[in-house]
DNA sequence: TTTGTTGCAAAACGTTTGCAGCCTC
DNA sequence: GAGGCTGCAAACGTTTTGCAACAAA
């Protein structure tokens, strides 16, 4: 959706103003790039993909990713020892992940029953914003190898 | 439970034999230590806690943690940028985690409805063994600060 | 003008690796 | 005896940090 980036930009602008942070071109260039991705990406990939359009340093990439996380515009995943992976949160359908414990392959899936069960859970003294579910096991390819 | 370590040792022994790995004293000393912990721990903490009883190198700790993961005797968590955390799996009740996005504080909770929803999920071409659910949000302490 | 942000490079950190010697099998 | 395993230290790769120059407010 094209509107997602507009919504995200507005949220980010409001977030920055409220926190007395500056609205630098780097930050918005990074946000725009992120909202063109439909899959998971890591910091290095994001950094490389930006070089032609708007050059920013890797440090700024990391800095901005942190801000976007705090603003709720991004979700972060830490799959095993690999670099952290990110995905946009606005306009993305809520999904879960299967992770192969042999080869590390990650796949998305959706399940209404699980989603409802988690979302209806209320916590005393904890204001939940989002969640991540990882189901571990062995994928088809790795099953065949053994 | 005291029997958990016995069950775990048996599973580990069988695992090592099957994989043609050696039953070294280091590996069983580490397994025993792990099963005395009731909370999450990281590799460094485990290493330090062993020094008096049975000295092993940090490299061996990491090596053994990997084996125990493969044997299904351990569950690994990667909370944000912190060192990986582990917990024993035998004799532990299935639980989920809330993670504060401000201070990083992790708390366990259980929920039968969520557990059933996830466990009843069937995957085509994926043999699931266990799962992790992280609910992100703001904890009580961090709510008060703002 | 003030002060937050940037780019750069160096440092930090948890984890992995290479290797010589050791000890299961 | 053979070959997997250990300890050690050095290497690795991602992320963080310190600092001077820069630019948003």
Present the secondary structure layout.
Two copies of one chain form a homodimer.
Chain A: H1 3-18, H2 25-34, E1 41-42, H3 43-50, H4 58-70, E2 74-77, E3 85-88, E4 96-100, E5 106-109, H5 112-119, E6 126-139, H6 140-145
Parallel strand pairs in A: 4-6
Antiparallel strand pairs in A: 1-3, 2-3, 4-5
Helix pairs in contact in A: 2-4, 3-4
The first copy, chain A, binds a DNA duplex (25 and 25 nucleotides) through residues 20-24, 26-27, 42-44, 55-60, 62-63, 81-84.
Account of the 3D structure:
- 2 copies of one chain form a homodimer.
- Chain A is α+β, with helices and mostly antiparallel strands and 146 residues long.
- Chain A folds into 2 domains: 2-88, Arc Repressor Mutant, subunit A (Orthogonal Bundle), CATH 1.10.10.10; 96-145, Dna Ligase, domain 1 (2-Layer Sandwich), CATH 3.30.1490.
- The first copy, chain A, contains 6 helices and 6 strands.
- In chain A, the strands form 2 sheets. Chain A has a 3-stranded antiparallel β-sheet with strand order 1-3-2. A 3-stranded mixed β-sheet of chain A has the order 5-4-6.
- The termini of chain A are far apart.
- At the A-B interface, α5 and β6 of A face α5 and β6 of B.
- β6 of chain A pairs antiparallel with β6 (126-139) of chain B, so a sheet runs across the interface.
- The structure holds a DNA duplex (25 and 25 nucleotides).
CATH topology (fold) name of the largest domain in chain A: Arc Repressor Mutant, subunit A
Cα-based radius of gyration of chain A, to the nearest Å? 17 Å
Q: What is the chains' assembly state?
A: homodimer
The major sheet of chain A is characterized as: 3 strands, antiparallel
Give the tally of β-strands of chain A.
6
Query: Which spans of chain A have pLDDT < 50 for at least 5 consecutive residues?
Result: none
Element string of chain A (H = helix, E = strand):
HHEHHEEEEHEH
Based on CA inertia axes, which overall geometry of chain A fits? globular
The CATH C-level class name of the largest domain in chain A: Mainly Alpha
Strand content of chain A: 15-25%
CATH architecture of the largest domain in chain A: Orthogonal Bundle
- The portion of residues assigned to helices of chain A is 40-55%
Distance between the termini of chain A: 42 Å
Determine the mean pLDDT of chain A: 95
CATH H-level superfamily title of the largest domain in chain A:
Winged helix-like DNA-binding domain superfamily/Winged helix DNA-binding domain
How are strands sequenced across the largest beta sheet of chain A?
1-3-2
Helix/sheet category of chain A: alpha+beta
